[in-house]
């Protein structure tokens, strides 16, 4: 078992980590468990949490309404339940969608307002204790301060709060479908890749991001047993730290626009769809791109074409063969442009070069 | 400029980091600056701190009595000054000796007792705000919770408190004499090496420690300008995190005994003197030893003899040619044994094998 304190979060990592939940429920009478429809049950995490709560005679209610690409409405609904029923603590059991929703609702419950206000800059005044049980090896949300919600067709990421306590038990990720395992790992990779190619990068972000890329490069192509899952979950966790220190930019901006337009597009899948050509443009301007791609693929990539090819080859190696055209069409490109250069402008300003509309269209065209 | 939050410490890293001191002095009327005799002045750090204090009209007093291998008496004396004169905050400007003394005194000032009580297990109830301006690339004390003090002939390390705010500005290390630069870097290396070979190691400690070894291996043998100093100071800082997560053991235990007996022995020098043969024994029992030595030297070392030789060669490469016999003699070995297997027993129990008296004598004999 590994214990870490990073920023405001105390994190437990390893098998049976959730047993330590009992040390963090002191004084709580009733808590709300936030989950999606399937993975909290399928993974066994919900049962493990329930056992601890029953053992300590803490009352609880399960709110299992969170969906992938969650909306502000869901966060508002959950916040109202927490507020009206006077829960003492929120326990999120899931991936990024679940943890992000719980973050926002835990704030609204004590600070008022609606989720969309926070997407537009309202500051959190107070928030309920939040415990996160992470079920993916991609989100990083268990250790970062970010949440992403969808309002209408727009997906917006905000800096809102850290979980107080988080648990990363790799055995819960053994039940992830294999395509989801690839998607979520690609999410972790882009947390690292974008962190290290942002204007805000620093030596610690480099240390973390290179390690993330090395671990993913070594373990994602393998059949994933517990050993590989443990390494991938660790990589995802430190990618969350890197992201927290130096936030994402172009690739996440475009993906948020895409999965805002088509909520059936899983986040990590969207990143993979456009990632190779986005890397082409970022690589032209950021030295660190070569470094992290070398860590991922073991290849020396100098030219932007080589960088793009190295990443495409890696995706092939891990069995990712989808195309952007499976989810959106050329008709949607104008709307993507409007969102990326409108509400998500703050994301693309995080690189040290001017990201243009032409670059965006080139990425989309080359990903179809 | 890099900003990090680790455990209870907010850390600023980079040139002119100390300018950010002004953000952390709110509400303080009078502070005490703790330094040694030379480096705080020579490096320019004292002047930089004084400028901020004068600018904000905060009163201050300089306590410049801290010596290398500081004693409990010095910590007690400083604590009494802080308490009687009612200072609001302690600012330590120096290396490990200065920061460690300030840690202990900041506790005694509000929790009572004497330094020796804390060495024997007394717990800190309260402590004054502590700000650390680190002047070495070795200590790690600016980001860890440890302090080491000498009582009589015994040097004891304790877990006592984190600084609240720390500053790592590499330009302050440009005035370190070159032998000190080697000593302090070897200290950082052993923080990483011992952390990763302790029972308490974990994946994050491995990530940090391998990076420490890589950076030291690449930069210590070079002539050190600001670029190399920046990298070495960064390595030292993350080695401090590794140490905080997984504390030191055999090499530090023996060194504490040696410099307890001869306070003229600089800590990092003592580690270098016995390090190669200590590595020989640790390498036999800890897989991670090969990994970190590969990061340091670029060499694949399998046998313990190869590990010892690789480290000896590295010391030669960086110009370290001293021998243990320059500081202690065979007559002292019984006393070293008494201290290592007596008051420092808790340190040698941190490895996954039984460290014997025979191993200790072998290390000492082979280092003479």
Present the secondary structure layout.
The structure is a homodimer of 368-residue chains.
Chain A: E1 2-6, E2 9-13, E3 30-34, H1 39-42, H2 45-55, E4 59-63, H3 72-85, E5 89-94, H4 96-111, H5 115-119, E6 130-134, E7 146-151, E8 154-159, E9 165-168, H6 178-197, H7 203-219, H8 226-245, H9 250-261, H10 267-285, H11 288-297, H12 304-317, H13 333-340, H14 345-348, H15 357-365
Helix pairs in contact in A: 3-4, 6-7, 6-8, 6-10, 6-11, 7-8, 7-11, 9-10, 9-13, 10-12, 10-15, 11-12
Low-confidence segments of chain A, given as residue ranges, are none
Query: What's the average pLDDT of chain A?
Result: 97
Structural class of chain A: alpha/beta
Strand order of the largest sheet of chain A: 1-2-9-6-5-3-4
User: How many domains make up the 3D coordinates of chain A?
Assistant: 2
Top CATH class of the largest domain in chain A: Mainly Alpha
Question: Count of DSSP E strands of chain A?
Answer: 9
Q: CATH homologous superfamily of the largest domain in chain A, by name?
A: Dehydroquinate synthase-like - alpha domain
Please summarize the sheet with the most strands of chain A: 7 strands, mixed
What's the shape of chain A?
globular
Question: How helical, in percent, are the residues of chain A?
Answer: 40-55%
Put simply, the count of helices of chain A is 15
Order of helices and strands of chain A: EEEHHEHEHHEEEEHHHHHHHHHH
| Multimer state | homodimer
Through-space gap between termini of chain A: 44 Å
Under CATH, the topology of the largest domain in chain A can be stated as Dehydroquinate synthase-like, alpha domain
C-alpha-based Rg of chain A, rounded = 19 Å
What pair of chains forms the biggest interface? A-B, 16 and 16 residues
Strand content of chain A: 5-15%
Write the CATH architecture name of the largest domain in chain A: Up-down Bundle
């Amino acid at each position: 078992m590994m214990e870490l304190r990073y920023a405001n979060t105390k994190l437990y990592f390893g098998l049976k980590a959730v047993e330590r939940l009992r040390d963090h429920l002191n004084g709580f009478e009733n808590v709300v468990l936030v989950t999606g429809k399937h993975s909290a049950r399928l993974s066994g995490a919900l049962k493990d949490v329930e056992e601890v709560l029953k053992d300590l005679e803490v009352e609880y209610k399960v709110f299992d309404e969170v969906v992938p690409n969650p909306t502000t409405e869901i966060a508002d609904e959950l916040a109202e339940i927490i507020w009206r029923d006077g829960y003492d603590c929120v326990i999120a059991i899931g991936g990024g969608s679940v943890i992000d929703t719980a973050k926002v609702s835990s704030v609204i419950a004590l600070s008022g307002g609606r989720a969309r206000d926070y997407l537009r800059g309202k500051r959190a005044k107070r928030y309920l204790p939040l415990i996160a049980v992470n079920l993916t090896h991609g989100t990083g949300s268990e250790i970062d301060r970010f949440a992403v919600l969808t309002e209408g067709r727009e997906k917006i990421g905000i800096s809102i709060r850290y979980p107080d306590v988080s648990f990363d038990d790799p055995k819960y990720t053994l039940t992830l479908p294999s395509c989801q395992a690839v998607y979520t790992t690609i999410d972790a990779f882009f947390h690292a890749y974008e962190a290290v190619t942002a204007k805000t990068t620093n030596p610690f972000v480099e240390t973390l991001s290179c390690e993330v890329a090395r671990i993913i490069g070594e373990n994602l192509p393998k059949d994933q047993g517990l050993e590989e899952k443990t390494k991938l979950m660790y990589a995802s966790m430190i990618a969350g730290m890197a992201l927290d220190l130096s936030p994402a930019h172009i690739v996440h901006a475009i993906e948020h626009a895409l999965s805002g337009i088509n909520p059936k597009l899983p986040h990590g899948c969207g990143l993979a769809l456009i990632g190779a050509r986005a890397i082409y443009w970022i690589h032209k301007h950021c030295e660190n791109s070569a470094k992290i791609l070398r860590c991922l693929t073991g290849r020396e990539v100098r030219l932007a074409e080589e960088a793009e090819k190295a990443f495409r080859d890696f995706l092939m190696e891990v069995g990712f063969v989808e195309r952007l055209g499976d989810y959106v069409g050329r008709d949607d490109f104008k709307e993507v442009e409007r969102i990326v250069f409108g509400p998500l402008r703050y994301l693309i300003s995080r690189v040290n070069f001017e990201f243009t509309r032409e670059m965006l269209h080139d990425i989309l065209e080359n990903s179809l």
